[in-house]
Amino acid sequence: MKTKRILATLALAGAMVLTACGGQKSSDNQSQTKTEGTKKEYTPATVRVAYMPNLGSASALFTAMDQGYFKEVGLDVKPVQFQGGPAEITAMASGDIDISQIGHGAHALCIEGKAKIFQMDSTTSLADEVVANKAHGINKKEDLKGKTIAVASGTSSEVILRAILESAGLKESDVNLVEMAVDGMTTAMVSDKVDACATWSPNTVTLKKAMGDKYLSLGSNADYLDKATFPSSFITTEAYAQKNEDVLVRFSQAINKAHIYRADHIDDVAKSVAKHIDAPEETLLASTKEGDWTTINQIAGDKAALQKVYETQQNVFIGNGRIKEKVETDKYVLYDIMQKGYEASKNSK
To answer: How far apart are CA 82 and CA 105, in angstroms?
Structure first.
């Protein structure tokens, strides 16, 4: 998916940016911030942001847009829909996207140095699930042996699939994996093209309604919360982060405010997201329990707590073989941006 390149002309940062962005040094490529009394005025910047059409990925982004939080910090956000995190990261690498919202699975690419995390969106998702068709002789996860399963490689749903296969004593070689975009899995399941799929909400909600008694959930993120976390995050490229630190801080500031609104008004947020992604309102309302919307507000600004989430997540990748060696989270997580965005959101009026 391509979007027109947008060139944002960034002025020299003045002394006041130190106040607005928590002590950030001014540089030629950072946007200028002025203060008049207690009111801050920001040099406008346009940001292209990738998201996926589900509540977990789109909720904070569209809340910040709907509530005017981006506008408050001078950001004009252009949302662009994608079907998975790996494709979003590819688009960022080619310069077509500036910021992306990713689920758990694509964080492995950040650990490998493909992108930088600068804002946690939620501490864990409960939306990923492996769904099977009972009519195809599947009544338990062990019955997946020899079955055809649709999967989107590199996504959070692939992680859950691996965990479920392992718990059933199965290897990937014991099943027939078919690479498929998540938006095509629903049709493939309903039309009996595959026996099972690794997908996420709201596709799971749609499948449950369409399949009726044939619908069988073989497991989700919720089954592994005692030993794993599945955070979602906003990410960017290293090059963009180096040139646009102030923009990222302002984006983080707006998202922090969106998190608080989301936790207090999740049903209203679900209805709004439904309109933005052109999905049935009832489908998004049925997805509101599939995310932890509160913990992020409790740990925002606490580096040790945030770091623990990413370290626990990395252990999941190491445990399933996706990541071979431990990487210090400071190498791919921009905790300083998170802190500055958090402080700015606390001090904003």
So the answer is: 15
Q: How far apart are alpha carbons 105 and 110 in whole angstroms? A: 10
Residue whose token pair is 């770091």: 307
DSSP per residue, 38-51 = TEEEE--EEEEEEE
Q: Phi then psi for 177, rounded to 5 degrees?
A: -85, 130
Model confidence pLDDT, tens digit, residues 23-47? 333 333 444 444 444 567 899 999 9
**The amino acid at 260:** I
How far is it, in rounded angstroms, from Cα 331 to Cα 10? 27
Residue 307: both structure tokens together: 């770091």
pLDDT tens figures, 210-229: 999 999 999 877 776 666 67
List b or e across 67-103, with b for residues whose CB sees 16 or more CB atoms inside 10 angstroms.
bebbebbbbebebbebbbbbbbbbbbeeebbbbbbbb
How is 91-128 classified by DSSP, letter by letter?
A: HHHTTS-SEEEE-STTHHHHHTTS-EEEEEEES-B--E
- 133, 192 in Cβ contact below 8 A? yes
d(CA 149, CA 56): 24
With 0-12 / 13-18 / 19 or more C-beta atoms within 10 angstroms meaning exposed / middle / buried, residue 15 is exposed
Please check whether residue 348 is in contact with residue 257, taking contact to mean a CB–CB distance below 8 angstroms: yes
The β-bridge relationship of strands 215-220 and 128-133 is antiparallel
Cβ atoms of 72 and 112 within 8 Å: the answer is no
Q: Is the dihedral of CA 324, 326, 330, 335 positive or negative?
A: positive
How far apart (Å, rounded) are the C-alpha atoms in residues 321 and 93? 25
